[in-house]
């Protein structure tokens, strides 16, 4: 059981707390002394979650407790919420999700839709003050105008498809006090599948001494938000009454594109980059799975070699990009609704320094070749 701090502070349950966003949220709540107790629930134990030293320290804080659960299973979910006699949780944040690429449709359905509904039902049963659902920003693929929360949703990834179905269930659960957040691409320390694969690909081209060539054009929208701002947004909406039953996009002000990211990656690794352009990329689209396999194969071998040469023996980082993220589909969000509640960003746009920070953390952990960052 987590040790109790100041009684006036809330107890918080973070589902999927060992993941990228979850661990940063635990850190945010503990470092800012916002919670008297935090329970992390995850099916992955902290010991195998590749936590950095700071996150390990936070997880070892006496106010933090870990409980193992597979939230797809209702009995395990019930156990995750069980109070141990010190009262119900005040706030429940759902960061748990099947995020591994390349799974089948039923695996995503169970690991996202079923998991979220299980957790939301349990949150309602325990009468929590707020259930914050960390959903997906991939709800529309055009760049004609930034997607607003009340515009038609056309989810274009497996995760977004089942997150959207789960979002639609939340208002139907009697007594559930919820808020939904739809983040853009989240990046920051501990990122493995947001921007990390693009950073690894940059490293691969540095290792190969070749120009990095990307599908489509620099104008492809890939809006972003720093993980610290997402954590701040979670707490901001949880603390306010006017955010009840609302949906908010969480996105920075930089209107990040593939061009923004590739330029920063090229600067970091001192490489050149170019684009195949729309015509060639459209031809690739006729055999996208073949192209994706070829591209991923081209990157995987040199990445393994670069790691071996630098003494990186085992790493969760990979240059693998899932096929569904390689079409010319935009991630372009309007963050105005959250801003109108008074939320202000700490990291208004993505920078080279913020990206380097992710890699430097991995270098210290010996998960990324130091030689490629020099
Ligand atoms: N990272 C991003 O760029 C991004 C962007 C938008 C939305 N999101 C959403 O934010 C949420 C968290 O993302 P993340 O990047 O931290 O992902 P992550 O994969 O790093 O973390 C997810 C965590 O959930 C846990 N989990 C998965 N299935 C579980 C189960 N059945 N029972 C218990 N635990 C389970 C995993 O072990 C993992 O620790 C997800 O819903 C994701 O879709 C992420």
Detailed description of the structure:
This protein is α/β, with parallel strands linked by helices. The protein folds into two domains: 205 residues, Rossmann fold (3-Layer(aba) Sandwich); 128 residues, no CATH class. It is 39% helix and 13% strand. It contains twelve helices and eleven strands. The strands form three sheets. The chain has a seven-stranded parallel sheet, with helices on both faces. Helix 1 links the parallel strand 1 and strand 2. Helix 3 crosses helix 4, helix 4 packs parallel to helix 5 and helix 6 packs across helix 10. The protein is globular. The model has no long low-confidence stretch (mean pLDDT 94). Nicotinamide-adenine-dinucleotide binds next to helix 1, helix 4 and strand 7.
Task: Write a compact overview of the structure shown.
39% of the residues lie in helices and 13% in strands.
Would you spell out the secondary-structure blueprint of this structure?
Blueprint: E1 11-15, H1 20-31, E2 37-42, H2 53-59, E3 64-68, H3 74-81, E4 91-94, H4 105-125, E5 130-134, H5 158-169, E6 178-183, E7 185-187, H6 196-208, E8 212-214, E9 224-226, H7 227-238, E10 247-250, H8 258-269, E11 273-275, H9 277-285, H10 288-309, H11 336-339, H12 352-364
Parallel strand pairs: 1-2, 1-4, 2-3, 4-5, 5-6, 6-10, 7-9, 8-11
Helix pairs in contact: 1-2, 1-7, 3-4, 4-5, 6-8, 6-10
The structure holds nicotinamide-adenine-dinucleotide.
Which descriptors apply to this entry?
seven-stranded parallel β-sheet, 2 domains, 374 residues, Rossmann fold, globular, 11 strands, alpha/beta, single chain, binds nicotinamide-adenine-dinucleotide
């Amino acid at each position: 059981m987590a040790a109790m701090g100041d009684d006036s502070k809330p107890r918080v349950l973070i589902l999927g707390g060992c993941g990228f966003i979850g661990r940063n949220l635990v850190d945010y709540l503990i470092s800012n002394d916002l919670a008297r107790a935090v329970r992390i629930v995850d099916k992955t134990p902290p010991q195998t979650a590749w936590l950095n030293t700071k996150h390990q320290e936070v997880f070892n804080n006496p106010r933090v407790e870990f409980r193992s659960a597979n939230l797809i299973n209702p009995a395990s979910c019930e156990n995750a919420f069980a109070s141990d006699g010190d009262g119900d949780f005040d706030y429940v944040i759902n960061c748990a999700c099947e995020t591994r690429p390349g799974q089948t449709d039923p695996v995503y359905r169970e690991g996202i839709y079923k998991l979220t509904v299980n957790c939301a039902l349990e949150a309602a049963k325990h009468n929590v003050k707020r259930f914050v659902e960390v959903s997906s920003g991939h709800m529309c693929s055009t760049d004609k105008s930034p997607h607003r929360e009340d515009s038609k949703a056309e989810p274009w990834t497996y995760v977004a498809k089942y997150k959207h179905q789960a979002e639609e269930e939340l208002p139907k659960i009697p007594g559930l006090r919820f808020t939904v957040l739809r983040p853009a691409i989240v990046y920051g320390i501990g990122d493995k599948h947001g921007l990390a694969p693009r950073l690894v690909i940059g490293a691969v081209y540095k290792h190969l001494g070749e120009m990095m060539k990307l599908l489509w054009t620099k104008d492809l929208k890939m809006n972003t938000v720093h993980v610290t701002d997402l954590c701040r947004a979670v707490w901001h909406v949880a603390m306010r009454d006017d955010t009840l039953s609302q949906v908010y996009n969480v996105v920075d002000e930089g209107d990040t594109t593939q061009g923004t990211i590739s330029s920063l990656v090229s600067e970091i690794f001192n490489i050149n980059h170019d684009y195949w352009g729309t015509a060639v990329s459209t031809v690739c689209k006729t055999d996208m799975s073949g192209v994706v396999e070829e591209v991923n194969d081209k990157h995987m071998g040199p990445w393994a070699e670069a790691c071996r040469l630098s003494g990186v023996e085992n790493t969760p980082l990979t240059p693998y990009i899932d096929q569904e993220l390689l079409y010319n589909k935009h991630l372009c969000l309007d963050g105005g609704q959250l801003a109108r509640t008074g939320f202000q960003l700490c990291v208004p746009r993505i920078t080279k320094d913020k990206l380097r920070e992710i890699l430097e953390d991995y270098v210290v952990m010996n998960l990324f070749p130091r030689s490629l960052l020099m």
